[in-house]
Amino acid sequence: MPKKRTSLLDQAVSQLLEDLADGIYLKQLPGERTLAERLGVSRPVLRSALEILENQGWIQAPGPNKARVVLKRPEPRNEEVRKIGILVPQPLPQLASDDVVLVTSLMRYCEEKGWRCLLFPIDQWGPQHLELRLDELLETSPCDIWVAAPLANIRAFGLLHQRGEKLIAIGCTAVSWNFGAIQYDLDSANAHALGVMLRAGRKNIIRPYGAKRLPDTVERTAKLLSEFGISYREDFHLPMFDGSREGFLRLLDSLFAQTPRPDGIIIQYIPGISALLVEGWLMERRLRFPDDVSVIQIGSDNFLGMMHRPVDHYTTDAEPLLEATYSALDHFFTTGECLSGNRTLQMTYVKGESV
User: Fold this and answer.
1) How far apart are the first and last CA of the chain?
2) Do 99 and 204 lie in a common domain?
3) Residues 199 and 101 in one domain
4) Residues 211 and 288 occupy one common structural domain
5) What is the CATH number of the domain that holds 49?
């Protein structure tokens, strides 16, 4: 066996034994893909490590349901290990740049405090399997508290909350929570962006929504438009789509087929939907910003630097979210009290050349 593979195998065995000792897997191990991602090794290396643990009697070889059952655990270490589950929408390389900084910095902070972090990219489970996978997760990898990072599946937050789990949601959202949330003020940023476009002379401004419109959002939009003498049309100014990339592009096709066509687009960045996507769509139709259409993005992402011109956008910097999250976690592990209510942070407007 090559030396590198041997080293990775030793690390995988050591980490699995440590996880067993810490009680991360109470009754059975999660699937191979989840374990391989968590340990940062290939599946062949993982299988070799699991075979060693099977031979040593720590776990049972997979049965008919392919689950590996925990037979015994090493003696736990003297200190109590705090476990934090971090829910993210996608694996780290697929997240927006600000979100990568947020998650990796949070994990580093937890490790420095001696807490164990477990990362779960939950959107890849699919909506039809979400509840089942979450129940399996709570069975195999229980955590003291869960941190739901930006743009992770909102339904997952609610399911964990229903099951009595401690939860802190962090990120950019306008949803009303029944549990603690640290969030950027998305609605105020959207209202400010609308004002920027109106003052620039744009009138047919669209702000696509992949979730329900909140009453406050509708009222603020209608009021701003009326101040500029524009009659508010809900399905035009705040159109709805299914949250998918394809649904977003279909919506653009439909709205730009109307007369008058949109002359401004405010985009809330979510994975797959960004100002870069809009730029490509406009180029196919021989349109460009800001001459034909103004574009403002709510949120930062990896793609802003790839565009032909700097885009006006609102930052979702990680540092304010991190400081608030560190404080909430420290408070929880010191007092047992979990953050409740909303802590709202303001976004910063970055002027570009797209309005």
Assistant:
1) 59
2) no
3) no
4) yes
5) 1.10.10.10
Query: What confidence tens digit (pLDDT) does each residue in 151-179 have?
Result: 556 677 778 888 888 888 887 554 545 66
Give whole-number Cα distances, 22 to 67, 74, 142, 168, in Å.
20, 9, 11, 23
Sign for the CA dihedral angle at 305, 308, 310, 313 comes to negative
Structure-token match 């032909």, residue found: 308
pTM score of the predicted model: 0.66
Identify the domain containing residue 126 by its residue range: 83-184+319-345
**Each residue's pLDDT tens digit, 269-327:** 877 888 999 999 999 999 999 999 999 999 877 778 788 889 999 987 778 888 888 98
CATH number (domain holding residue 88): 3.40.50.2300
- Based on DSSP, count helices (H) and strands (E) in the chain, helices before strands: 12, 13
Claim to verify: residue 306 and residue 326 sit in the same structural domain: no
- Looking at the chain, list the stretches that DSSP marks H as alpha helix, in order from N- to C-terminal side: 3-21, 32-39, 43-55, 97-112, 130-140, 154-162, 186-199, 215-227, 234-237, 245-256, 275-284, 318-335
Same domain, yes or no: 52 and 94 = no
Examine the domain organization and report whether 309 and 324 are in the same domain.
no
Q: Higher pLDDT residue, 151 or 187? A: 187
Residue 283 vs residues 37, 85, 256, 279, 306: alpha-carbon distances, Å: 38, 42, 14, 6, 15
